[in-house]
Amino acid sequence: MTENLPAPLAEIRDEFLALEVRERLQLLLEYSNELPELPERYRDHPDLFERVLECQSPVFLFVEVDEHGVHLYATAPAEAPTTRGFASILAQGIDGLSPDEVLAIPGDYPQSLGLAAAVSPLRVRGMTGMLARAQRQLGERLAAAG
Amino acid sequence: MPAELDPAEKFAAYANPHRLVSTEWLAAHLEDPAVRIVESDEDVLLYETGHIPGSVKIDWHTDLNDPVVRDYVDGEGFAKLLSSKGIARDDTIVIYGDKNNWWAAYALWVFTLFGHEDVRLLDGGRDLWIAEGRELTTEATVVEPVEYPVVERDDAPIRAYKEDVLAAIGTEPLIDVRSPEEYTGERTHMPAYPEESALRGGHIPTAASVPWARAAAPDATFKSRDELDAIYRDEAGLGEADRVIAYCRIGERSSHTWFVLTHLLGYPNVRNYDGSWTEWGSSVRVPIVTGAEPGSL
Predict the structure, then answer these.
(1) How far, in Å, are A118, B31, B226, B287, B297 from residue A22 at the CA level?
(2) Can you name the residues that pair with B41 across neighbouring β-strands?
(3) Do B98 and A79 touch (CB under 8 A)?
(4) Distance (Å) of CA B225 to CA A102, B118, B264
(5) Which residues sit opposite B32 in a β-bridge?
(6) Where are the domains of chain B?
(7) Which among A56, A117, A119 is the nearest to B192, CB-wise?
């Protein structure tokens, strides 16, 4: 069920699926290295961030909506490159989408990347948790904004 | 030909000193043709971010577990894996990893199921190696595949199944190595590991609680023989037990305790119950105790 998939997320998926399983790990590592630093204004605000309990490593995320669309910020330690990679895929794939587009991302998007064989289905579930929490946070922000 | 032993004084006090090497020893044996270095971590990408020169990666999910049945790979799968990693049957294997060698100990235990003779842990693991500023590389290790014989797993001596544990309650000491919250039943999973859960919380009747990481010092090395004796022999009451079963949630943390009891303290028949709480806590009609007391059957 990926017909609602926004273009950036579809491109990321296709990029993974075009590779051999082994190379997909390398691509995930590249995403991991690209996880953006937090913008200055959020660095001293750990209170804004929500812990993603589905991930084995400490990862925190925060959703913001402004006139350019939705932005997802995440932090995860360098010792948790897989988790950083998952966060980076979502942060890059979601950035600038409209709130409706983000809410419509299918919950099984993480399973569509062909990573189960490379990192195991159990680990992929960490990314599913991240997406679900990002969507829930977004819904709450929209509701609060009325 | 196995590699020479690490003569470190600390190791001499352990039951099987040859099961550990120090970071110093490993640094001096990076080029030793008898030594194969294996990294095994919780995070499947950590090795790629930088690893000990010449080491190969073995992942517990994707390499050691059977992809379909909840079991380990078979003799053929293990031979194929080690062959592809350039490891021969008579090589000395040194395993290291993150988080106090948690997953490294798990890999060592699985290697032991296949009777690989000379397999050792790097005392302090990945964290100590890095803390000491020793060399890491992102350069891919080039491996020549070698012949590794097909040896069928021998589970019985070191692996306990659920039925074995049921029969052991009341006759054989059990050690629960999970967190105190998991032991009492307050949680059905480890903090931050909700995916590996069970339907009921608590512990197996009679099991003593000794969280696995108590065996590690702050620098990720194993505690000294005296400290470990005080924890397991005295406090947990193992005394001179001739049989012990350790369990956790899926058998990884208890592999670490299995290593401590077997190789550092010399207990003769220690089995790891890898089904652990994810099996026991979801099984129908097995006895469970909640709260801080071990309880009885």
Answers:
(1) 7, 27, 45, 44, 49
(2) none
(3) yes
(4) 55, 21, 7
(5) none
(6) 9-132, 162-281
(7) A56
Dist CA A7 CA B286 (whole Å) = 51
Q: How many CB atoms lie within 10 A of CB B236?
A: 21
Interface touch A29/B62, C-beta < 8 Å: no
What gap in Å lies between CA A33 and CA B177, rounded to an integer?
Answer: 35
pTM of this structure: 0.91
How would you write the pLDDT of chain B (297 residues) with one tens digit per residue?
689 999 999 999 999 999 999 999 999 999 999 999 999 999 999 999 999 999 999 998 889 999 899 999 999 999 999 999 999 999 999 999 999 999 999 999 999 999 999 999 999 999 999 999 999 999 999 999 999 999 999 999 999 999 999 999 999 999 999 999 999 998 776 555 555 578 899 999 999 999 999 999 999 999 999 999 999 999 999 999 999 999 999 999 999 999 999 999 999 999 999 999 999 999 999 999 999 999 998
Give the integer Cα–Cα distance in Å for A109 and A18.
Answer: 16
* Min Cα separation A101/chain B (Å): 28
The enclosing H or E element of B38 equals strand B35-39
SS3 state at A122: helix
User: Is position B248 annotated as part of the catalytic site?
Assistant: yes
Say which CATH topology domain B9-132 has: Oxidized Rhodanese; domain 1 (3.40.250)
CATH of B162-281, one of 3.40.250.10, 3.40.50.720, 3.40.1780.10, 3.30.565.10: 3.40.250.10
Q: Domains in chain A, ordered, with CATH?
A: 7-145 (3.90.1010.10)
Residue B83 near residue B123 (C-beta atoms within 8 A): no
Tokens 């979502």 correspond to A90
Phi-psi region at B38: left, alpha or beta (left = phi > 0; alpha = psi -120 to 50): beta
Q: How many CA atoms, within 13 angstroms, populate the side-chain half-sphere of residue A92?
A: 21
B9-132 with B162-281: one CATH topology?
A: yes
